[in-house]
């Protein structure tokens, strides 16, 4: 039976030697051509690949099959193959595959129903094994703290990645540092570990490479909002020899009362589990990989009834750093090239190439058919998206703004904030609520957690109906905007967050004391 050209092209690419990042990127593009196709067609294509691409590398083949199909069972097979030979695998390659799987889950590219329990039964244990290999190969001995020792009033705040104030998680990190110092009475030292792979170390597709800010190296001061923070940062590659030891030696010298991690899969923080009180603050609503004594919720999640977080999970609501938190009264549509009578929808994100997919753009086109004065602006980095928008039959009503420095001003002149299917976006959703831009989100993900059920709709068809109704009725839009501002005011404030953090830090200390006997 003749195969679709995309499948034969992909099989041919899998059979050829991969000698450069360009070869791997070409395979990724061929895999992603299947994402908008019917699920049954995607499943058939994945099943055909082993026959058509015999001899392909195991990691390359199975990760491609998973991408084409969205079926998590191919990751089961991939992890079976890796874990059988894990002692001989490079640490960088193991972390690269771990990060690649995590990114696919974060982007909602995989079907959770295809393999129930994947997080608890495979992803989390694989991460534990990687930590075990790091300990074994690098003779890691975390500096334990005497359970009965006097407190120092100091905590270390550990992150996998600090970039700049244009990077939302970096702004959030500094906000938490300020909150811990000003409202919780703690001295904070930030550890910027950059443990995530910044280069390609395996043939896993789609590949993943983290960004690193090369100027952030060594012991330095980071200035923001009129104050300075001490940061210990390493830009050495991934888990190069000596890098983890340097951070652990720094922790021993600082002698913190607790180790806090911002985000999951924080290797340096998780290596400290059991040796000092540990606490993890997630940055997303997705399942958090953390060995901390206490793992906080992102906001609005249900307590896990089983699995590795069943004992450590605690309710919490993440406090975003909002650059445009104060309502804007001076914002003007003309500054963004928007007409006064337009019905303006905003789409905000730093992964728009991945998240503004075919189904989302089809929804916007259906809206434009219904509402002639509707336009959509995309704010955030995108390389491929402008070309895709140019091919739309409504290309003139779809505009990519790129990076927007004043997000508060943009959202203040928008009628709606429209969220594609994704996990992230919590900070921009909070900004939209504060600005009175009516948010629309599918269920699940950070945005749905922030905006609440009133602004969560079941599918894109409901988006079109809701937006068309708002465009046709200014009074209804004004009422929805007022409701959005009220929802925004309900987000956890600094006082509430500080009280919760202090309480959980005390609990982590109590748990630590309870399981470690006092040393003589």
Automatic annotation (TrEMBL):
Gene3D superfamilies: Glycogen Phosphorylase B
Region annotated Disordered, chain positions: 485-520
Record protein name field: Glycosyltransferase
Species, as recorded: Azospirillum formosense
């Amino acid at each position: 039976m003749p195969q679709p050209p995309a499948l034969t092209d992909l099989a041919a690419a899998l059979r050829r030697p991969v000698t450069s990042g360009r070869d791997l990127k070409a395979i990724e593009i061929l895999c992603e051509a299947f994402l908008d196709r019917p699920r049954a067609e995607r499943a058939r294509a994945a099943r055909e690949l082993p026959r058509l691409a015999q001899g392909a590398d195991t990691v390359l083949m199975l990760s491609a099959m998973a991408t084409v199909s969205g079926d998590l069972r191919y990751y089961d097979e991939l992890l079976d193959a890796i874990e059988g030979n894990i002692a001989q695998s490079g640490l960088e390659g193991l972390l690269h595959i771990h990060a690649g799987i995590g990114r696919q889950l974060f982007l909602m590219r995989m079907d959770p129903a295809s393999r129930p329990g994947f997080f608890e039964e495979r992803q989390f244990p694989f991460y534990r094994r990687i930590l075990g290999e790091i300990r074994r190969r690098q003779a890691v001995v975390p500096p334990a703290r005497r359970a009965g020792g006097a407190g120092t009033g100091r905590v270390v705040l550990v992150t996998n990645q600090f970039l700049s104030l244009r990077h939302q998680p970096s702004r959030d990190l500094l906000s938490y540092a300020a909150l811990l110092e000003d409202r919780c009475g703690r001295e904070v030292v930030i550890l910027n570990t950059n443990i995530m792979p910044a280069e390609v170390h395996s043939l896993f597709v789609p590949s993943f490479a983290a960004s690193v800010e090369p100027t952030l190296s060594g012991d330095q001061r980071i200035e923001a909002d009129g104050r300075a923070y001490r940061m210990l940062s390493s830009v050495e590659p991934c888990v190069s020899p000596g890098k983890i030891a340097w951070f652990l030696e720094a922790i021993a010298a600082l002698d913190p009362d607790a180790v806090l991690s911002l985000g999951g899969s924080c290797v340096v923080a998780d290596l400290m589990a059991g040796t000092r009180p540990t606490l993890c603050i997630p940055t997303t609503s997705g399942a958090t990989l953390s060995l901390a004594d206490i793992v906080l919720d992102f906001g609005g999640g249900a307590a896990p009834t089983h699995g590795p977080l069943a004992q450590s999970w605690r309710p919490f609501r993440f406090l975003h750093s909002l650059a445009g938190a104060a309502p804007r009264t001076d914002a003007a549509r003309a500054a963004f090239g928007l007409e006064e009578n337009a019905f303006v929808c905003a789409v905000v994100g730093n992964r728009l190439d991945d998240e503004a997919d075919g189904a989302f753009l089809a929804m916007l086109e259906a809206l434009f058919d219904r509402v002639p004065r509707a336009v959509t602006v995309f704010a955030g980095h995108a390389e491929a998206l402008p070309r895709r928008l140019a091919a739309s039959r409504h290309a003139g009503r779809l505009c990519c703004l790129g990076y927007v420095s004043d997000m508060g001003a943009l959202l203040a002149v928008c009628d709606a904030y429209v969220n594609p299917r994704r996990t992230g976006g919590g900070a921009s959703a909070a900004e939209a609520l504060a600005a009175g831009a009516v948010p629309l989100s599918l269920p699940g993900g950070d945005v749905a957690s922030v905006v609440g059920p009133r602004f969560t709709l079941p599918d894109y068809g409901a988006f079109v109906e809701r937006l068309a109704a708002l465009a046709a009725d200014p009074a209804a839009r004004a009422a929805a905007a007022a409701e959005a501002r009220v929802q925004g005011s309900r987000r956890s404030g600094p006082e509430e967050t500080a009280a919760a953090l202090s309480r959980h830090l005390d609990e982590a200390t109590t748990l630590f004391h309870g399981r470690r006997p006092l040393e003589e």
